[in-house]
Amino acid sequence: PVPCLMLLIAALRNATPSLMVQALAGRLQNITFDRKNQNNRDATAATLAGKCDVLFFGEVYLHLCAQSEALLTAWPHLQAMCKAEILNWASSGANRSPLLPLLLLRCVQRFVQKTGPITDKRIKKEQQDLIHQLVASCVSLLSSKRGGGLGGERLSTATAISSPSHPEAILESSADASSSDAGALEEPQPEVTAAVLKVTVGHVSGLDSGDSLLDTLVTLTLVLPALLDIVWNDEREKTLLLINQVVPMAMLALRTNYRLSQAQVAAGQLLVMLCDHSYTIRGWKKDVWELLHEPSFFSINRQTLLKLRKPISLMMAMEKSAFVDMLAGRGFAQGSGFFQNRESESTIRARLLRRVSFVLFAAAKDEYMEFLPSILERISETMKMFVQPLVHIEVLFCMRVLLTRFSPDYLASFWPLVLTELISIFSPSGTMRNDLDLTVAALKFVDLALVLAPEELAMYRWMFFTDTSDLMNNDSEFRNFVPLLEQFFIGGDRTTIDSVTTEQRKPFFAQSSVITSQESISRVIQNMVREHKKMFTMSGCDLDAVNLSLVDHFAIPEDGAPNRNDPQVFAGTEYQD
Predict the structure, then answer these.
(1) pLDDT tens, 135-189?
(2) Between the CA atoms of 271, 276, 282 and 283, what dihedral angle is there, to the nearest 10 degrees?
(3) Alpha-carbon distance 351 to 298, whole Å?
(4) Are 570 and 564 a contacting pair, CB within 8 Å?
């Protein structure tokens, strides 16, 4: 219980650190695995639980130890304890769990946080070697459980791994606690309070989710920032070996089709943490680049896709030539060359466009301003070369992303392209009017354009629906004109709504119903037009709602099926996009 533990730590925090660590090591030695009965899961679990209790106590003690200067003398004992326990754990049989090496790693993290950077190169080298050994133990275990596919080999995306629910707050709080501890090495010693112990207990209690990969990723996200900042503080070039051990575990989660996707979220959070240590990019940029180009990339759940924006943005910012290659289609699967049919070409072009859209979505506003002419040229070329709706859906989506990532002043040459595409879809004589999915994609562009750029679109708004100024126009010829969207109305009227509201504009399709027929599209268009007439007097737009409306499209797998990794789909709610 926490009160008892609090009293015990308060009494022992001033004890001699070397004696305390020796006592912990002795207690661990007395708890042994039964090697004659290695396949007995209950006996192994009981032994592991006893060792984890001791290590949990050791972690709390190291975190709250009041003798940080004397703690360095305990390093030989801590090192010997960790090595002995790893050897015992490795020989404990098939029922191994990553909890023991993970808790040992957390004890090492607490130790180096308390002692801070050291100048003794021998001890620093020993710390680095021990950390490598502990991480390698986790990698070895995961590799054996996943069929040996952790060493950089590509795993089948069809592999189904059950992952029970894991509190996301543990992952977020672990990352926050790690970064705050790393930056507070000179702070006063923490008091032994229930609040401090509650945080530590929370981190440990959330550790055993039942999924080895998830537990490992959560722990690495917690401990790596402090280890990188302290143990490798003046030897950053040597971090590559550690990153090469860690990144394959994140890639394993991102490439695997999880029934529930918390491990993917943890992997995304781990990569975000590595971005805060930009010198580590050499260790993960190749893996992230390959992941971006894999067909399964958009099967990743939307929460993780949002996290992946940061590593992809950093990777592309540091190598602008990579975006040029992507725009030109270099390094992307091109099919069978001469024997490639038009349908497969259109599929490849659609996939390429979606990846370009995601890279732009991950970037800061106007970051790719110098490439805008090339982007528009590529879009124009695609519109002329392909008539397949699949390609034009991605063209319209890329245009939506451009609206959010470029200032209106840079998009003057953008609107003629857009209007040409929209007229070909909405006009009664349009060449692509009858495709329902394409019509929805065009509606989503008009919806977002009205939210983000009402002033720029004002001169073209009459083409889509009437507003107050249109109805007040006495020109009978104009009054006989039926705007493109209102041609879809069934029994609707052309009145307007002039109510004033202080709410922010947000995309109508962010909360719309699924469109399955021409009748439902008519109803949805009427509702959309009515809502946008209400937005004429609104000030500003809800950027969070805008970004989520874009993520909804990215979270559709490229085979068109609903994303089973997505919590919204798995929970039984209707998929909107």
Answers:
(1) 999 888 887 765 544 543 322 222 222 223 333 443 444 444 444 433 333 333 4
(2) -40
(3) 10
(4) yes
Residue among 391, 457, 455 nearest 418 (CA):
457
DSSP 3-state of 492: coil
pLDDT, mean of residues 546-554: 86
205's CB contacts (< 8 A; 6+ apart) are: none
- Tell me the two tokens of residue 17: 């650190």
With 70 as the cut, is the pLDDT of residue 322 above it? yes
| Predicted local distance difference test score (pLDDT) of residue 450 | 84
- Using CA atoms, how far apart are residues 38 and 192, in angstroms rounded to an integer? 39
3 state DSSP class of 160: strand
257-258 and 160-161: which strand pairing? Answer: parallel
* Per-residue CA distances from 318 to 86, 108, 311 (Å): 39, 33, 11
What are φ and ψ of residue 377, in 5° steps? -65, -40
| Look-up of token digits 């290659």 | 325
Looking at this protein, which amino acid is placed at residue 209?
Answer: S
Within 13 Å of residue 412, how many CA atoms lie on the same side as its CB? 2
- Report yes or no: 455 and 537 within 8 Å, Cβ to Cβ: no
Give the residue carrying structure tokens 């919590």: 567
Sign (positive or negative) of CA dihedral 123, 129, 134, 135 = positive
Integer Cα distance of 532 and 65 in angstroms: 61
